[in-house]
Amino acid sequence: MLGFDPAGPPPLFEEFFHRIHPDDQAASRERWERAIRDKADFEFGYRIVHPGKGVRDIHVVGHAVLDQSGDLDEFVGTVIDITERKRAEQELRQLVDFVPQVIVVLGPDGNWIHANRVAREYTGLTLEESRPPDVIGRVIHPDDVERMRAERERGLAGSEPFEVDARLLGKDGIYRWFLARYNPLIEEGRVRRWYMSATEIESRKQEEERIRQENARLEERTRIAQELHDTLLQTFQGALLHLGAALDGITQDSPFKPQLDRTLQIMRQGIEEGRNAIQGLRSSGSATSDLVVHLSRFQKELEFQPNIDFRVVVTGRQKQLPRQIQNEIYRIGREALVNAFCHSGAKRVELELEYSDSELRMRIRDNGCGINPQVLEKGRGGHWGLAGMRERAARIGGLVKILSSPMAGTEVQLSIPSNVAFHPADF
Question: Which of 79-93, 137-151, 286-300, 379-393 has the highest mean pLDDT?
């Protein structure tokens, strides 16, 4: 196997040593000298230049035999020609370099032996940089490292295929989710290699997270709906019954009868809107209605100052809005209109809805007395209207700006980017 005459005398070490490939001589000598010095077993590989077969790959395993005094007596071991296996591995490496997927070849201990072209291009690591044992801490997301190490350790301790998912750092600095599948190569009952293929599952993870968040939001909406039903709505219902009973005792010619009748009507409408809001909170559907129609009839429904000039302007082509987006816009618009009709002393109120390619914009203007600058900045104790508008806008990816002065009145501006308003993810 080493190119010496089997019938001749055993070669001296230096004779054998000169058969080793020149590029491997220094490392091989160092390994043998260390084994002799440490009286320790060894296992490593080197190449020889065979006189008849050319360059051959050799794998050697040696066991240290000690005498009764504890001194090194001899090494007993085996020499294996692994040239064909090496060639096969090299061909396999060349083959996996063409596979459009992250593939890594690992030793039985889990250390990287080879990373294919896709793996190197994705991570930006050279083959030498990928081989140190701490490469996991370098390329795996910090939040996933300990879990991945534990799952890998359990899997590598056995001989069955296993899977691990984790976020892998790309050379662009972005972590993406990958599912790594480990498959063992077993020879003579031992795992000789692990072949790991990794598939990007970022979109799947995003979908799983979207569903998880949607379920969490639905649970929270259901809880809020239950609270509203058991507190505010029940209180309004009780007040409605008492008011109705009181009205039964008032004569038709009473000057208070029209006002109380209107109050009763407003309360019934409020209860109906509350029920609709609770139904919306409990539902994850996407049914929509006409936002413009609802906001246009707002003054008439609640009979706010009929002498106020109320105008609705729509520019651009109206587009259908998801229920969640539309509901928040309506609530913001309703709050701004209530403020304009009830508190501004305005003679003119204008609602404008603008649909454009870049954004959806709503403006509500009045020519009233304006808002106190301190109230505009910090709000009024116990009142949450202005803060609520801003919070609702932020919740759907929009922005509310409020401009106000005593001379010019108040303008509430809501803007929502078109990719959010018209093509949104679930909120």
Answer: 137-151
**pLDDT value of position 297:** 77
| 122 phi and psi angles, rounded to 5 deg | -70, -50
The span from the CA of 335 to the CA of 379, in Å, is: 14
Q: Is the pLDDT of residue 239 over 90?
A: no
Q: What are the residues whose beta carbons fall under 8 Å from the beta carbon of 98, sequence distance 6 or more?
A: 117
Q: Which of 134, 100, 139, 95 is nearest to 114 (CA)?
A: 95
Q: How far is 151 from 118, CA to CA, in rounded Å?
A: 24
User: Under 8 Å CB-to-CB from 381, ≥6 apart: which residues?
Assistant: none
Question: What pLDDT digit, counting tens, does each position of 279-295 carry?
Answer: 655 554 444 457 788 78
Q: Checking phi first, is residue 76 left (phi over 0); if not, alpha (psi -120 to 50) or beta? A: beta
- Between the alpha carbon of residue 390 and those of residues 252, 308, 336, 415, the distances in Å are 45, 26, 11, 11
pLDDT (tens digit per residue) in 28-42: 999 999 999 999 999
> Which amino acid is residue 251, in one-letter code?
T
Residue 12: partners with Cβ closer than 8 Å, 6 or more residues away: none
Measured distance CA(376)–CA(390) in Å, rounded = 12
Give CA–CA dist 93/193, Å, rounded: 13
The DSSP result for 58-98, as a single string, is EEEEEEEEE-TTS-EEEEEEEEEE-HHHHHHHHHHHHHHTT
Q: Which two tokens stand for residue 105?
A: 């070849």
Q: How far is CA 20 from CA 28, 51, 85, 180, 230, in A?
A: 8, 11, 19, 39, 87
Is the pLDDT assigned to residue 298 strictly greater than 80?
no
Q: What is the mean pLDDT of residues 62-89?
A: 90
CB 402, CB 364: distance < 8 Å: no
